[in-house]
Design a protein that fits this description.
Chain lengths: ~180, ~600
């Protein structure tokens, strides 16, 4: 598998947590993976970016025009990061409108009684778009291990819900129940 | 100690280096937090707590102290490590320079993390220069996996030559994550024993000359075995790239992605200083040479024959800022006559960071602006540098400088004989412990008069919530009030900054003491726990904060108070995000129309 992925948002939204789950999940799937995350001052509400590279890479940084997928928690952050993308790249964004690349992750999370779980829903949605090359189980294991006790069950449910939503439609077509 | 296979684990570079320290067998480890190095010590302490290993692992008061504590253990023949960010090494430069002369017995590893960019630092300095300055070897890892191995190699090299050894990771090693093999838990062997040798451990200048001679011998010997490692040497290569650290990883990936394998010779440098002489012979083999390293030019500067060598010194590679795979691709492509697509203009600046909702520092800065609209505000290193956003921070130089600079401003105005404006210094609790105390003693002793706010949130917040000396530890707790008193300060008040009117009143009292009566330094300790790492604030349970219909859309609260929970809603109307709001109630004092209320 060869996949270069950019995750963007602002500090405090849990972007580092998503990156950890992704890295751990790909590693448990048997892939070679390297990622980066933003620490320090930007974590106080500033723009943050993570990069995840799956495949035979030495460096964790992605060249402009080379990313296969961009995962963003808001349109503003996604806009800023478009230069990273390949022409046929997939953009997955949390938004109120529903569409091919937009998912109302916050709404789904609220429906689960977990208003802060939107980003985990978003992650599940993005992973489903990588199926069948990607299986959900290693990521479920990863999120179980990485979540604090208090949020473990809620995070697992949110990831599953996002995955289900992602499987529902690709290019407007229903691909799986 | 028994060895036990643990297998692979996904680790942050800093976690991997912590495992290198554990597996390397260090028994005394010391550090001061600073991005991008903080998680190394956090992980050492976590492993220690979980495994019950016998290691003394301390968050020291500053980097100089950390260095000296760990070094003493190496004098006793035991392995030691000390970790810090690059500007922290400036603070520890004194012991570094001298310890290169005295040398060590047990392996001594200094991890100094650089921050090309910079992302979270006041400079882009290259710690490898300080290794060359001190004449000690330095490892330059290119990945988390390699960083762990290099920490262990550094222990061995240090012991073999009885010399301190630096490991210098950069941000994208420290904060990169990958699968890392863990092999043994080794808590260290041996018993500390001190062999008296005053000509070494307490050398006078006459013996220092001899120690210097000995140091030069060590460096020459290490250099003679240290040459760039050939990774790929295709016949007829048009260019040789010699690289170290993360730029090596970029070069490796770029050459592969662009299909340049047959055209480029690639060499890797693990130890950028001291380099052997083979590099000068090596460059004769190729028509052109490109050196890739960051943030400065340590390898490049050691090459005698400069004719064919290109790098950061001649701006073939940009002389400032971090390298990226795009910059590396373009630099290599230029030698091959191959245009690599232009790097797009950097996107508009992203969202800037700000103090958290409910942050006690925001309340303090608001009060300072209210009490002294025309003051000069010196500040310091920490979350509270973000007081910039409230226009209550005018200077930020380095750890502890808020206090000495406030004193300097006072002396300058005083000498000139005119009116002295309100001078207000702000410093966090941990920074006060780190470097503020000598500055405060000096200010009091020299008769400077200014207001000093010690913003005490009880934790090192910016770097992830490390403990301060005010916490219970193995020894006694430090009390800021008593320390200020010990420095000779007579005006000391403690206040919860959430009580804005009281704080403003105290600030005015302090101003009278300082400017009217000219009695010296007035200290106000604003004490409220950090909302992220501290105790959960009970105010959350009180009624919600809302905007009432009295709001006339003046924008003061959203623009000047800039709490992330106060957001611009439809038609420019401020709204309070109940998800973000910490219910601190400080904004109730902010609205001039009383349009912010608790429901």
């Amino acid at each position: 598998m060869d996949l270069q992925m950019v995750i963007v948002g602002v500090g405090g939204e849990g972007i580092i947590f998503l990156t950890r789950v992704l890295t751990e999940g790909f590693y448990r799937s048997g892939h070679s993976v390297i990622s980066t995350e933003t620490h320090g001052m930007a974590m106080r509400g500033g723009s943050v970016i993570s990069q995840v590279k799956v495949g035979n890479y030495m460096s964790p940084m992605i060249r402009h025009g080379e990313a296969d997928m961009l995962l963003g928690t808001s349109e503003a952050e996604v806009q800023r990061s478009l230069p990273f993308l390949k022409e046929d790249a997939t953009v997955i964004m949390n938004a109120k409108v529903r569409g091919d690349h937009c998912v109302d992750a916050t709404g789904i999370a609220r429906g689960l009684g977990n208003p802060r779980g939107g980003n985990v829903v978003l992650l599940g949605f993005a992973l489903a778009r990588l199926a069948p090359a990607v299986a959900l189980d290693p990521f479920l294991e990863a999120i179980e291990d990485l979540s604090p006790e208090k949020f473990r069950l809620a995070n697992v449910e949110a990831l599953k819900a996002g995955w289900r939503e992602g499987l529902k439609t690709v290019n407007g077509e229903e691909i799986q129940g | 100690m028994k060895s036990r296979a643990l297998g692979g684990k996904v680790l942050l570079g800093n976690e991997a280096m912590a495992w290198g320290i554990i597996e390397g067998g260090a028994t005394v480890v010391a550090s001061y937090p600073g991005t991008p190095a903080s998680e190394i010590m956090e992980t050492v302490r976590k492993i220690k707590d979980e495994s019950g290993l016998k290691i003394h692992a301390e968050w020291s008061i500053n980097e100089k102290v950390a260095f000296e504590v760990a070094l003493a253990n190496s004098y006793l023949g035991m392995r030691s490590a000390v970790m810090m960010k690059q500007v922290g090494l400036n603070v520890a430069l004194d012991p570094l320079m001298s310890s290169a002369y005295t040398g060590v017995k047990g392996g001594f590893v200094l991890i100094a993390a650089d921050d090309p960019g910079p992302y979270s630092s006041q400079t882009e300095q290259d710690s490898r220069y300080l290794a060359t300055f001190a004449k000690i070897p330095v490892f330059d890892p290119s990945s988390p996996r390699e960083a762990k191995e290099m920490v262990k190699r550094a222990f061995d090299l240090s012991e073999q030559y009885e010399i301190p050894v630096m490991v210098r990771p950069t941000t994208w090693v420290c904060h990169a994550r990958q699968g890392v093999e863990l092999d043994r838990r080794n808590g260290g062997n041996g018993v500390p024993s001190f062999k008296k040798d005053p000509q070494r451990w307490a050398a006078t200048p006459r013996f220092r000359y001899l120690l210097h001679k000995e140091l030069n011998r060590k460096v020459r010997e290490i250099a003679s075995e240290n040459n760039p490692q050939p990774i790929a040497t295709p016949e007829g290569a048009e260019l040789a790239v010699i690289a170290s650290g993360v730029p090596y990883a970029y070069a490796h990936d770029v050459v592969k992605a662009m299909g340049w394998e047959e055209r480029i010779a690639l060499y890797k440098v693990d130890i950028p200083f001291p380099l052997g002489t083979e590099i000068d012979e090596l460059i004769q083999l190729y028509p052109q040479i490109l050196i890739l390293e960051e943030p400065h030019s340590v390898i490049e500067c050691q090459i005698q024959c400069r004719k064919k060598v290109r790098g950061r010194l001649d701006s073939t590679v940009p002389s400032e800022g971090e390298l990226t795979p795009d910059i590396v691709a373009r630099a290599i492509g230029a030698f091959l006559g191959q245009m690599v697509k232009d790097i797009p203009e950097p996107p508009a600046a992203g969202k800037k960071p700000s103090l958290c909702p409910g942050c006690p520092h925001r309340a303090a800065f608001w009060a300072i602006r209210k009490a002294f609209p025309n003051g000069i505000y010196t500040s310091d290193i920490g979350c509270y540098t973000l007081g910039l956003n409230l226009k209550a921070v005018d200077t930020c130089l380095c750890m502890g400088a808020s206090i000495s600079q406030a004193a300097g401003l006072y002396h300058s105005f005083k000498q000139a004989g005119g009116k002295i404006p309100p001078i207000v210094a702000t410093i966090g609790d941990s920074t006060f412990f780190h470097a503020g105390i000598p500055a405060l003693m000096n200010s009091v002793h020299q008769g400077a008069c200014f207001v000093l706010l010690i913003l005490d949130n009880g934790i090192v917040a910016m770097t992830g919530g490390q403990p301060t000396p005010a916490w219970p530890g193995p020894g006694k707790k430090m009390e800021i009030e008593k320390l200020a008193q010990g420095c000779g300060v007579e005006f000391i008040r403690v206040v919860d900054p959430y009580d804005v009117p009281l704080l403003i009143d105290l600030l005015k009292q302090a101003d009278r003491y300082v400017r009217k009566e000219e009695k010296g330094v007035a200290v106000i300790i604003t004490r409220h726990p950090c909302l992220i790492y501290g105790v959960r604030d009970e105010r959350r349970k009180e009624g919600e904060i809302v905007i009432t219909k009295e709001c006339d859309l003046c924008g003061l609260c959203t623009e000047r108070f800039e709490c992330p929970a106060l957001q611009e809603g439809p038609e420019g109307r401020p709204v309070i995000s109940q998800v973000l709001c910490a219910n601190c109630g400080v904004c109730l004092y902010v609205c001039p129309h009383g349009a912010i209320a608790r429901r």
